[in-house]
C-alpha cells in the first residue's frame, strides 16, 4: 500500500499539468501558465530527488529497520502532499515534489527489500510481482481525480500512505534485520509467524550462517569488490532500464496532454483509468505464472509486445503531425494500442525486473546494491522526463517513442545474453551462479 504513492507521484503531472498551463486562476493555483521548461522540471524533479533518497535508503533500513523506515517515510509522504495541495508559488511546488520524490523512491526500494526478506523461495517472485500492482493503482487515483482541482488531486494522494500508517501496526520486522540486530529470539518468532509454523529451524540456522558470513556494514564501494556483486549490479541496471526505456514513465507523466493532443475518442484521463485497471489485473496474472514460466520468458514476451505498441503509436503521432486524413478514421487506435501496451507491460516489464533484481544481490549487499542501481535508474528517468516535452515541442511525440523502441531492443539483447534465470533457486544458489 505504501508504494501506491510512487505510482501517484509518477502520474501526478498527467492530470495537473493541463490545469497549471491554464491562464484561468480559478483552475491554475499558480496564477500564470507554466512554461515548457517549468513543465519539464515539475515532471522530472521527483526523479532527481529519488536519487538522493535512494542514497540514504541503506542507512535508514540498516539503522532504523525495514518497518520503521517504511513508517517514517510514509509519514513524510503525507506531509509533502498536503504541502503541495496548498502551495501557491512554483518554488513551493518544486520543494514539495522534491521531498515527495525523495520519499516515494525510498519506499519502492525498502518495500522490495522487505518483501524479499519475509518470503520463502517458492513465493518470493510472486510477492515481488504483486508489488507491481500498487504503482498502477496510484496512477488510477490520479486519473480518477483528474477532473477535480489541483488541491483535491493532491489530497487524494495522502489517502493510501495514511492508510498504510494505520495498518503498519500489524507488520512484523523482517527476520533478517532482527538477526543482524542480534535479536535472535525475536527473529525466530517473526519467522514462525511469517511461515505459519513453528518448524522453521532449518531456515533459521541458514539465515544465521548467512549473517555470520556478512557481519560487517556495507557501503556502495562494496558492491564493486567481487565478481558476483559486480554482475548483480550490472544485471540489475539492465533490468531497471527495461522499465525506463519502455516509455512507461513518459506515458504515466504525460498521459493526459499526449492523448488529448492525439484527438483520440477518449480523454487522456479516461485512457489512464482503463490502462491502470488493465495493468492491475495483468500484474496479478503475471504473479501466478512467474514461478511456473520463469522470469525471463515473461520479460521477453512483454518487451516485444511493448516495443510493437510503441512503434504503432509513433506512426500514429507522425501521421498526426502531418495532418493526415487517415487519422480521422482511426481515432480509436491510440486507445486500443495503449490498452495492449499496458497489458504487455504488466505481465513482464512492470513486475519482473523488481522481482528478479531483488534476487540477484546477496543478503548483505541487497539494500545498498539495489538502492545504488535505483539511484542511477532515477537519474536516467530524470533525463527522459525532462527531455520529453522539449523533444516533443521541437520534433514531435513520435521521435520520443522511436527512441524508446530502439533503446528497449538494445537492453533486451543484453539481458538475453547475460542475466540468469532464478526461478526455483535459493538466494545462495543464485550467488554461486553469479560467482562462476
TrEMBL record:
Membrane topology: Multi-pass membrane protein
Molecular function terms, GO-annotated: transmembrane transporter activity
Sorted UniProt keywords: Cell membrane, Membrane, Sugar transport, Transmembrane, Transmembrane helix, Transport
Listed transmembrane segments: 39-57, 69-87, 93-115, 127-144, 150-171, 239-259, 271-290, 297-319, 331-356, 368-391, 397-415
SUPFAM superfamilies membership: MFS general substrate transporter
Pfam family, one: Sugar_tr
Record-annotated Major facilitator superfamily (MFS) profile domain positions: 1-423
Main location class: membrane
Cellular component GO terms, alphabetical: plasma membrane
Compartments reported by the entry: Cell membrane
PANTHER family the UniProt entry points to: GH07001P-RELATED (PTHR48021:SF1), PTHR48021
Protein name (record): Major facilitator superfamily (MFS) profile domain-containing protein
Amino acid at each position: 500500500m505504501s508504494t501506491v504513492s510512487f505510482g501517484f507521484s509518477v502520474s501526478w503531472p498527467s492530470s495537473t499539468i493541463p490545469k497549471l498551463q491554464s491562464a484561468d486562476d480559478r483552475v491554475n493555483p499558480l496564477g500564470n501558465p507554466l512554461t515548457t521548461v517549468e513543465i519539464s522540471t515539475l515532471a522530472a524533479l521527483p526523479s532527481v530527488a529519488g536519487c538522493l533518497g535512494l542514497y540514504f535508503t541503506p542507512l535508514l533500513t540498516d539503522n532504523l529497520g525495514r518497518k520503521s523506515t517504511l513508517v517514517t517515510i510514509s509519514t513524510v509522504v503525507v506531509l509533502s502532499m498536503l504541502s503541495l495541495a496548498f502551495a501557491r508559488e512554483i518554488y513551493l511546488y518544486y520543494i514539495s515534489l522534491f521531498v515527495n520524490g525523495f520519499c516515494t523512491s525510498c519506499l519502492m526500494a525498502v518495500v522490495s527489500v522487505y518483501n524479499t526478506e519475509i518470503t520463502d523461495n517458492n513465493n518470493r517472485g510472486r510477492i515481488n510481482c504483486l508489488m507491481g500492482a500498487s504503482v498502477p493503482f496510484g496512477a488510477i487515483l490520479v486519473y480518477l481525480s483528474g477532473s477535480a482541482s489541483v488541491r483535491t488531486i493532491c489530497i487524494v494522494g495522502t489517502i493510501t500512505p495514511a492508510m498504510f500508517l494505520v495498518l503498519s501496526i500489524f507488520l512484523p520486522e523482517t527476520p533478517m534485520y532482527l538477526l543482524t540486530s542480534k535479536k535472535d529470539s525475536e527473529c525466530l518468532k517473526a519467522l514462525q509467524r511469517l511461515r505459519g509454523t513453528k518448524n522453521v529451524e532449518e531456515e533459521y540456522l541458514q539465515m544465521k550462517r548467512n549473517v555470520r558470513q556478512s557481519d560487517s556494514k556495507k557501503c556502495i564501494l562494496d558492491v564493486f569488490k567481487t565478481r558476483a556483486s559486480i554482475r548483480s549490479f550490472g544485471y540489475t541496471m539492465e533490468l531497471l532500464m527495461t522499465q525506463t526505456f519502455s516509455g512507461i514513465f513518459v506515458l504515466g507523466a504525460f498521459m493526459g496532454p499526449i492523448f488529448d493532443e492525439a484527438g483520440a475518442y477518449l480523454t487522456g484521463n479516461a485512457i489512464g483509468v482503463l490502462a491502470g485497471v488493465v495493468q492491475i489485473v495483468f500484474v496479478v496474472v503475471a504473479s501466478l505464472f512467474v514461478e511456473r514460466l520463469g522470469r525471463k520468458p515473461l520479460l521477453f514476451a512483454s518487451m516485444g509486445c511493448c516495443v510493437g505498441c510503441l512503434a504503432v503509436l509513433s506512426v500514429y503521432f507522425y501521421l498526426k503531425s502531418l495532418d493526415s486524413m487517415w487519422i480521422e478514421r482511426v481515432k480509436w487506435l491510440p486507445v486500443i494500442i495503449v490498452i495492449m501496451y499496458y497489458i504487455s507491460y504488466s505481465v513482464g516489464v512492470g513486475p519482473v525486473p523488481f522481482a528478479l533484481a531483488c534476487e540477484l544481490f546477496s543478503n548483505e549487499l541487497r539494500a545498498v546494491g539495489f538502492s545504488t542501481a535505483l539511484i542511477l535508474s532515477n537519474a536516467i528517468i530524470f533525463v527522459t522526463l525532462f527531455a520529453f516535452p522539449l523533444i516533443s515541442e521541437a520534433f514531435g511525440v513520435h521521435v520520443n517513442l522511436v527512441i524508446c523502441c530502439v533503446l528497449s531492443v538494445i537492453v533486451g539483447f543484453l539481458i538475453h545474453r547475460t542475466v540468469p534465470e532464478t526461478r526455483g533457486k535459493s538466494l545462495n544458489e543464485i550467488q554461486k551462479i553469479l560467482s562462476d
